[in-house]
Amino acid sequence: MNEQSTSHLLPTYARVDLAFERGEGVWLFTASGERYLDFTSGVAVNALGHAHPQLVAAISEQVRKLSHVSNLYRIPEAERLAARLCAASFADFVFFANSGAEAMECAIKTARKYHAANGAPERYRIVTFEGAFHGRTLATLAAGGQKKYLDGFGPVVDGFDQVPFGDIEAAKNAIGPATAAILIEPIMGEGGVRVVAPEFLRALRELCDRHGLLLVFDEVQTGMGRTGELFAYQHSGVAPDIMALAKALGGGFPVGACLATAAAAKGMTAGTHGSTFGGNPLAMAAGNAVLDVMLADGFFERVKRVALLLKQKLASIKDRYPSVIAEVRGEGLLLGLRAVVPSGELVDALRAQKLITAAAGDNVVRLLPPLIVAEAEISDAVRCIERACEELAKHHRPVAQGGA
Ligand SMILES: *Cc1c(COP(=O)(O)O)cnc(C)c1O
């Protein structure tokens, strides 16, 4: 009997029967010493790769001093991280949580409370987009609106109006007297690396300004350098009023954050929200160390350079293996291969080549390497992808294009 079948873990995940013992940079090692190239980064979490010396040192140093004190007291490490996140973004205030879903809960509450504080508590509804993913709490599931995740969990939390992805007319029509905000991921991650056009974000910004709504960006996956800028919204020049971060913010240590302008945060006064663990000194040491690395000179230029290299090589693979890959999409190091074969088959074939990737919606395979990936490691990954495509192409013949 294998260990999996005797596991006492609640079986909510369809896990691959593979365990890693340690990691170093972009590499993961099993207990028997097998080496895998990690192009998943713990689903966009390990932006600095595994066991990054600066992150290890910062966490080690902090854990010896102080891990946790509660939010009954001032936490200088949190004040520092909040100040740095605000200096680098549109925001004036930060609330720290422990996960993406919690950061999103705070974003939703902040948007609702803003209108209540302005004397319009009836404005609580949020317009969201089909295929979105905002987390697994009851409210964030309702925001995402995906039936497969909502089924069987009782009444869906009220207050979310879903419209088709990319449909500005539908978004307009969904706005009513009870609308509080519009919520979107600048690039839909779990939904299949679907990039939202900058013009679309601009149109949403205009809609929000015209109707007195707040614009909320879920940058839990796209934020913290993943797309080649610290935040994905910076590519479009469209700033939100509220933004959720998590995943890479702690580089592997659980940290979430909800950022807001002073105006949008108007209702979030003492006692309105809280978290026991949120923003504790240990988590904040991790967040500050991640920023130390990312804000160093040339970090994002390098990310953009290797990302362009990877994208070009993927485009060439797509051209050579049209029976396996239909499209390369994404921005920076949030890249998606829309597969012709079932995406799960491509993930398995890549893993057989010792390259680990993550499936997403829309039959897409996500490539999410650590942001510190080197050009030589991009080449290694490209060879793995070529070999996997070669294998798959043997079994999946291209559809004949007319002629004989
Ligand atoms: C992962 C993710 C979440 C949820 O984050 P958790 O830490 O799993 O709660 C929310 N929004 C987006 C866009 C995500 O990618």
For this entry, give a set of tags.
404 residues; alpha/beta; Aspartate Aminotransferase, domain 1; Aspartate Aminotransferase, domain 2; 2 domains; 7-stranded mixed beta sheet; 4-stranded mixed beta sheet; 13 helices; binds pyridoxal-5'-phosphate
Q: How is the secondary structure organized here?
A:
Layout: E1 22-24, E2 27-29, E3 35-38, H1 41-44, H2 53-65, H3 76-87, E4 93-97, H4 100-117, E5 125-129, H5 138-144, H6 147-150, E6 160-163, H7 168-174, E7 179-184, E8 187-188, E9 194-195, H8 198-211, E10 214-218, H9 233-236, E11 242-245, E12 256-260, H10 281-294, H11 299-320, E13 325-331, E14 334-339, H12 343-352, E15 355-356, E16 358-360, E17 364-367, H13 375-395
Parallel strand pairs: 3-15, 5-6, 5-7, 7-10, 10-11
Antiparallel strand pairs: 1-2, 2-3, 4-12, 8-9, 11-12, 13-14, 14-17, 16-17
Helix pairs in contact: 2-10, 3-10, 11-13, 12-13
The structure holds pyridoxal-5'-phosphate (PLP).
Overall description:
The chain is of the alpha/beta class. The chain folds into two domains: 3-51 and 299-393, Alpha-Beta Complex (Aspartate Aminotransferase, domain 1); 66-294, Type I PLP-dependent aspartate aminotransferase-like (Major domain) (Aspartate Aminotransferase, domain 2). 37% of the residues lie in helices and 17% in strands. It is built from 13 helices and 17 strands. The protein has helices spanning 41-44, 53-65, 76-87, 100-117, 138-144, 147-150, 168-174, 198-211, 233-236, 281-294, 299-320, 343-352, 375-395, and strands at residues 22-24, 27-29, 35-38, 93-97, 125-129, 160-163, 179-184, 187-188, 194-195, 214-218, 242-245, 256-260, 325-331, 334-339, 355-356, 358-360, 364-367. The strands form four sheets. Strands 4-12-11-10-7-5-6 form a seven-stranded mixed β-sheet, sandwiched between helices. A hairpin with a 5-residue loop joins strand 2 and strand 3. Helix 2 packs antiparallel against helix 10 (281-294) and helix 12 (343-352) packs across helix 13 (375-395). The protein is globular. The mean pLDDT is 96. Bound molecules: pyridoxal-5'-phosphate. Residues 99-101, 104, 133-135, 185, 189-190, 218, 220-221, 246-247 line the site of pyridoxal-5'-phosphate.
